[in-house]
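To whoever is covering the structure queue this week,

Two jobs came back overnight. Logging them here so there's a record in the thread.

Job A:
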Amino acid sequence: MTKPIAIARRSVSWCALALLTASWLSVPLQAQAQSRKDSVTLGMILEPTSLDPTMAPAAAIGEVVHYNILEGLTKINADGSVSPLLAQSWQMDADGKAYTFKLRKGVNFQDGSPFDSSSVKFSFERAKDAKSTNKAKGAVFNNISHISTPDAHTVVLVLNNPDGNFLFRMGENTAVILHPNSAATAATKPVGTGPYQLDSWAKGTSVSLSKWDGFRDANAIKIKKVKFRFINDSSAQVAALLAGDVDGMPRFQSPQSLQQFQADKRFVVELGSTAGKGIMTINNRKKPFDDVRVRRALSHAVDKKAFIDGVFEGLAKPIGSHMAPTDKGYVELSGQYAFDPEKAKALLKEAGVQTPLNVTLTLPPPPYARKGGEILAAQLAKVGIVAKIENVEWAQWLGGTFKGNFDLTVINHVEPLDYMNYANPQYYWGYDSKAFRDLSAKHAATTVAKERTQLFGDMQRMISSDAVNVFLFNASNTAVYRKGLKGLWSSSPIFANDMSAVSWQ
């Protein structure tokens, strides 16, 4: 009697084990990975062309390295506020021209080098150098007249002109701190003071990071492995999320699929704000675009509402100048050039333009550009402008279009406070206005808040009146991620993915 009972018990045990194993195997592999609560895979639209944000302009660089590998004196938070990071405190002189930063002690770079005031001095002098390609060189670093280091943990920055946004600019990825020993190779092997180190960069596919155990607050970092996968096709983004190949898309660009994810209990969908200014850029150096009447004609030819409805399903706001509605001092100018094809035709005729006017519309990979470009081409055709669409990869856009080799293009400028690019005649759209440069210099020089606000509004109105570009949209930030993933930004005041605050619930 005892033997059969033993066999029966063993059979029950094996059956239970089989059922447990079957149920485990039935769980998607991604869910199993999540149960370990130590890794995250995020999707990105564009692949960075470099991993050094201080020397290359692509916003995608910051999505990978900013706050993860590389850090600055200050930190810009998801709500746009500024808090200490490598600087633990600061003081500003009464005239707004000198900042004294007290640096954190006990901070090291990932190669073992100490972080101190000499690292800050080196990084900012490198950004100011004549050969520097830092995109903030003109607006930020050329305004620093003197850098002193009274001791290892104190840096004094003296400005030529007051800058009410200076602390914010110290938190942008253009102002991250590099060490002299590793700066030369930061484009492929960035070494910083942040919580993560570069593991690998599989070109065309992904970048992988791993937690750095030497980080000053390593116990607070919950995610040990981070992978950024590059997926610029909107359908592929949807498929990757549904299959569990990625855990989230912090900047999801398939608004047509949002309802599907909102109805799926496995996902969370959040809508936030961005500093983005979506524009149809005009090459102001080329004829006939050097004539303001032609640029104004382009503005009247475009139906912003139809563009926003067609590309973003309405999840964007029209703009009329190079500022986002969330920016302090924003002036609503989106109605300055009403959609009026007949007026556009009249302006082209007045400027002596023979139609059909053949132009090239160069489109980078993001869905808003590729889909939006088709809409713009159809609208321009109705006023006699035939736009031949040229689709290019991101590296081609940066190497050609961004160097000034284009007629028209579509791009979302996501950097906050980048209006000073209009004071640089060498910038890729080639706007050369002494009146604007004088106005921007006056704005930079004054410390009177009311006067700064007035001048800031005047700058926006001048850019709009000169129709430098066709100002289209400020898109909402749409984040889609798996339920249980916490800490991702719902808004994007800057393009960054701060993984130090991310965890699985």
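Job B:
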Amino acid sequence: MATLDTSLYNQKGSTYFYSFATFPSVKIYKKSTGSSWNQHLLFGDFIRILDPEIVHNRVKARSRNKTGWIPVEGIQKNRILEVNFIDIGQGDGCHIVTPDDQHILVDAGEYDNMNRYLYWRFNLYRKYKPLPFPFHVVISHSDKDHYKGFEYIFKNDKIKIDKIFHNGIVERPGEPSAFGSIKDGYITTLVQDTADMLKLLENPNKRKGKNSMYLKTLHHVLKNNPEVAFKNLSIEDEHLMAYNEGNLIEGKKFEVDVLGPILEEKNHKKVLKSINNAGKDKNGHSVLLKLIYDKVRILLGGDINTEFGEMIQDYYKSKDQSDRLVMDVAKACHHGSNHFHYGFLETLNPIATVISSGDNESYAHPRPDAIGAFGKTGYSKTPLIFSTELARSNKEITKLTITKIADKLEKIKQNENTIKDLAESVNVFTEEIKKLKAKNKQLNKEVNSYITKFGMINLRTDGQNMIIAQKLEKEAAYGKWDIHPLTYQEDTGRFEHDDTH
């Protein structure tokens, strides 16, 4: 019998083989012959090869909790870039997995959805030790619908954080302004490194009262991650992550470039410009990141607003570097707010825009004019617009479903209170506590799975081919996913819709 060529899989030890799904998607079939399938995998999904022996051009494998048979042409050896735009409700939350298996979290919303996603993604219900790898955290700016969700992650002892990157603007109580000091139109008290941040975090007076929530949230990270490093980001930082010479992963360029905020120097101090509006200042100075992997360019831009969108565009235009702002995919700044600069959007010119927004807000995001502008300024006649909020709006979300989820969350809370009471009791109720904990684990798993299945926008790319996918409301005969394949074309220098798949 023929066996799978070693160029198609990786090996750990003598019996553990694994691969990844090929572009654009792959089926797991129930048998070695026939067309009946039980799982639909996205480009880049992890596949455990159970037996390298080839039977009818298929190998036995397991992925996404299903076992079956995968065609030989459906597997590849190399991991790809994965960018998951999580449905965290109102706010932003993004999980990046690099081709060399590093993990970056860019914002985490306001509540616990990102933490629930991580529980689902890494099956943390079964793990008693921390994950073997740390996360890099990027907080684009200090709006709570971007940073407050990190409180749940920082308290999670199964997740390790090694670095926290931020924009240098740290709200704190008891000072002339929420950001410390503003002088002659510039924010002058920027928090630049670990020592600066710890000086604030370790002062209990900075963790109570008005303007203290950001520091209180950050302080939670210290318990499980006492060696964590803090670093503010600006245009002075060429890259978020440095690799070998040339920034290559397996011969392909990989960079996370920092395009903003635009740091200046006044009177020998590093400063950021203020427009005399605290909310617009911290939004406009969001950390602006550009992911580059081979030919792919992806923008993550926090809440860049009208005024600062214009400033950023003018800055790069003045440097004759406007092309640095051209993107293939852009996370819509400010959740599809109407606070956008049209010229900035025109310069970005992405073929795909991803909007992260939620139902529980008073802004009607995404705004109709923003959606229209994304379409008009996008590349090609039919640019793609995705929304975590719309992807979540499936037929299963009814009043009954919402009630069921709310009931599960309420039951989890009741069980936690009972566990606490039992633990404090004179009598020991070990078995009862174990049963309640097991029940809560199952209830949490059900809630987390629901949150993750619908609403998340999945981007996968090897630098030349890319898919952007969302879960179908109802499984179709052809698969479980709405998949949009894109392929880089040398003649246009852009990603184009791939109509061959």
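Note for Job B: The chain has a mean pLDDT of 89.

Please reply-all if you pick these up so we don't duplicate work.
Q.
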